[in-house]
Amino acid sequence: MSIRELVLKNRSYRRFYEEYRLDRDVPLELVDLARLSSSGANLQSLKYLLSTEPEQNARIFDTLGWAGYLKEWDGPGEGERPSGYIVVLFDQNIAKTPFWDHGIAAQSILLGAAERGLGGCMFGNIRKDDLRASLGIEDHLEILLVIALGKPKEEVRLVPLGPDGDVKYYRDADGIHYVPKRALNDIIHEPHHPKEA
Amino acid sequence: MSIRELVLKNRSYRRFYEEYRLDRDVPLELVDLARLSSSGANLQSLKYLLSTEPEQNARIFDTLGWAGYLKEWDGPGEGERPSGYIVVLFDQNIAKTPFWDHGIAAQSILLGAAERGLGGCMFGNIRKDDLRASLGIEDHLEILLVIALGKPKEEVRLVPLGPDGDVKYYRDADGIHYVPKRALNDIIHEPHHPKEA
Predict the structure, then answer these.
(1) How confident is the model at residue B191 (pLDDT cuts 50, 70, 90)?
(2) Which own/partner pairs from B156-163 qualify as long-range (CB within 8 Å, at least 24 positions apart)?
(3) pLDDT class for A71, splitting at 50, 70, 90?
(4) Residues in CB range of A197: below 8 A, 6 or more apart
(5) N or C: which end of chain B has fewer CB within 10 A?
(6) Where residue B178 falls among pLDDT bands split at 50, 70, 90?
């Protein structure tokens, strides 16, 4: 699969076949992709907590804010929840900043998931204090984000941004999830006044 | 190529065949990979400035801090410099934070480059005021990072971290660049005291 096909396949999924059991080797292999990716000043300050057991999955699920734009929807019901999670932590004993390593890592992880026919979603909207307490995460490890993983049970379609410029994703009556994306031309910046050297 | 092969191929390169001319379509296709990748709250606040012309490349080159750990090396000499750059900007008129979108975007871009037999390097060490003035970047666009692109002219090898835990990369007498990487076991966090619910 080309990287473009993989990037297109790698959508943010929020409903899953929860009965699909995620072998711990899968998130481990995905974290290895993150490990082998680049890291600011090569400091490699990220740590990863893997969850594939239902009891721990439920603890993590309870701390996540799902799909902020879908006001009528509180997140996936029982039977449609993720089969596992990777909690991305920043070890403050190693560095002063994670730079943008967590974005690099999360993208490597989710592209690897897409290649395996899996999918997921990155969460920044987390009740972090609750998650820290529930999982016993030490104070020097800052919770950066949570990646949900599972076998996707929904269709996600990219559509052009409408004339109103609204970026909010939405669902139709059949549960298909639509994500408006800006056009390529609209994100290329042309310098207006380059000064002569 | 599997995502693992691509991730392994995608090293941080700092010396290039500068005579290789980068067609503007290449960074454009790579930015399209970033465009199609996920974005926090789908806000898509990143903008991209593309540079493939020698004069503009030189302006960008002059603002970059190269390879902080190689104290004897000021960066690539003439003939070994990148053939182009993508400057990643955060449009503050769109969002309050880019989240970790720039990491996601940069990883998509560089995996796409690796697939095309190209390579590059992410820079956070930038004289941002100089770059802003030199390229005429408006104030509402925050410079997040610069991605250098070109045809790599060096070999980069991953090696295990030594017993001293030193993460600094180094070169041998043949100019081969070594990057110490933490072991997978050392970046997996095992919760120590999960509280019972």
Answers:
(1) low
(2) B156/B11, B156/B12, B156/B13, B158/A36, B158/B8, B158/B11, B161/B186
(3) confident
(4) B59, B134
(5) C
(6) very high
Task: Centre a 10 Å sphere on the Cβ of residue B162 and count the other Cβ atoms it contains.
Answer: 9
Instruction: Using alpha carbons, list the distances in angstroms from residue A69 to A61, A123, A160, B167.
Output: 18, 14, 17, 41
CB atoms within 10 A of CB B155: 14
pLDDT of residue B71: 87
Quickly tell me which residue has 């943010």 as its tokens: A12
Backbone angles phi, psi at B131, to 5 degrees: -65, -45
What is the spatial order of strands in the sheet that A46-51 belongs to?
A46-51, A84-91, A141-150, A119-123
What pLDDT shows up at residue B190? 85
ipTM of the complex: 0.96
- Asked if pLDDT for residue B192 goes beyond 70, the answer is no
Per-residue model confidence (pLDDT) at position A67: 82
- Note whether B149 and B84 are within 8 A (CB): yes
Interface test with A, best of B11, B29, B36, B45 (most A CBs within 10 A): B36
Q: How many residues are listed for chain A in this entry? A: 197
What is the Cα–Cα distance from B109 to B46, expressed in whole angstroms?
Answer: 13
CA–CA dist B163, A99 (Å, integer): 25
Asked if residue A35 has pLDDT above 60, the reply is yes
Alpha carbons B94 and B101: distance in angstroms, whole number:
13
Least CB–CB distance from A49: residue in B33, B158, B191: B191
Best CA proximity match to A184, nearest among B94, B25, B100, B120: B25
Count helices and strands in chain A by DSSP H and E runs:
6, 7
Structure tokens at A130: 């609750």
A-proximal residues of B, 36-95, CB under 8 Å: 36-38, 40-44, 46-50, 56, 59, 68-69, 87, 89
Inter-axis angle of helices B128-135 and B54-61, nearest 10:
160
